[in-house]
Design brief:
Layout: E1 6-11, E2 28-34, E3 37-39, E4 42-46, E5 50-57, E6 63-68, H1 70-78, E7 90-93, E8 98-105, E9 109-114, H2 120-123, E10 126-132
Parallel strand pairs: 2-5, 4-10
Antiparallel strand pairs: 1-8, 2-3, 5-8, 6-7, 6-9, 9-10
C-alpha cells in the first residue's frame, strides 16, 4: 500500500455506540480485542468516505491495530516502534482501554489488520478489511 492510498485524522475519543461489524460497508465499526483476537475478523468499509473505527481492548495486555498491505506488515514485523501515534491506521490500544480512529480509504481492495506485538500474529490476531467501491 502506498501512503497515498489512505488519509485520515486520528481521534482518541470514545464515541457513542457504533455499529458492530456489518455485512455491507459501514461508516462506523467497533472491533473488540479479546483473548488476543479481533472480533469481528472481517469488516467492510466504503471507498472514499470517513470511517470511524472504535477499538475496545478487553484484555489485560496491550495490543495494536495495524492496517495495510504485505509491505506495511513486513515493516512492522521487523520494526522497533513500541507505540503508535499520529497515523490513523496504526493504533496502540493499552490494556482494558478504548481508542478511536477516523480513516478514509482511497482505493478499493482488501487489506489486513494485525497485532504485531510479540507472538500475537502467530496466535491468530489478524483480520481483513475490505474497501468497497
Amino acid at each position: 500500500m502506498r501512503r497515498s492510498l489512505l488519509t485520515g485524522v486520528l481521534a482518541v475519543a470514545v464515541l457513542g455506540p457504533p455499529a458492530a461489524g456489518c455485512a455491507g460497508p459501514a461508516d462506523r465499526l467497533e472491533i473488540v480485542l479479546r483473548n488476543s483476537h479481533f472480533e469481528p475478523t472481517a469488516v467492510s468499509v466504503p471507498l472514499g468516505r470517513q470511517v470511524t473505527v472504535r477499538l475496545r481492548n478487553e484484555d489485560p495486555i496491550d495490543h495494536e491495530w495495524i492496517v495495510g498491505d504485505a509491505a506495511i506488515h513486513q515493516r512492522h514485523r521487523t520494526g522497533t516502534e513500541q507505540h503508535h501515534t499520529g497515523r490513523p491506521t496504526e493504533i496502540s490500544v493499552p490494556a482494558l482501554e478504548t481508542r478511536t480512529t477516523i480513516v478514509t480509504f482511497d482505493t478499493a481492495g482488501t487489506l489486513l489488520f494485525v497485532c504485531h506485538l510479540p507472538g500475537h500474529e502467530a496466535y491468530g490476531m489478524t483480520g481483513t478489511l475490505t474497501v468497497v467501491g
